[in-house]
Amino acid sequence: MRSEGRCYHRADLGAKPIRLSLIVLAAFTLAACGVSFSEEFEGTELFKTAWLTEGIAGAAGEVCAKQGATWVCRPGMQLSVNVGITNGYSVPVKVACYYEDPDAVTEDDEKLAFAERAKLIGETVLPAQDGRRPDTYAPTAGNSKALETLSFVFPAPERGKYLLVCLTPAAADNGIALTFKIDG
Predict the structure, then answer these.
(1) H-helix segments, 3-113
(2) 66: pLDDT strictly greater than 50
(3) Burial of residue 24, with CB atoms counted within 10 A of its CB: 0-12 exposed, 13-18 middle, 19 or more buried
(4) Which CATH class is domain 47-182?
């Protein structure tokens, strides 16, 4: 097919309407697959919230300060990462929390999975919850199921900014992250 004495051009074949149709189709497909876009994190099936507390070993801790989205803790303290979860899995689930200094990660380190390169804070295996499904077991306004809290204690690292992630190592996309810095 030729047009005006030149080879055909993709615009002659209707590429723009096809491209627009694909974009609209993709948007509907994402919505149908349960993908939603929002500005507020509502958690995953397992992880709902996370926060840091600090204290002296053996004493009750207090919540670290918050500057924007970053938790700020003091040096020399015992830190606790506290994770609010809903355990709706009918099989045992391993949960682990790690942290790293993102500025210290080398190109070689980036080739490793986060759980292989970061420092382990703590881990546990949640017991199976017979008869539950994670997609239906979640606290909501009309649902009285309370969050369970996991806590892992670790010494404050040296001054700096860190990324902390709690996840299920078998499915690393199922996790919650926060940033914290040691300052003061």
Answers:
(1) 15-32, 107-110
(2) yes
(3) exposed
(4) mainly beta
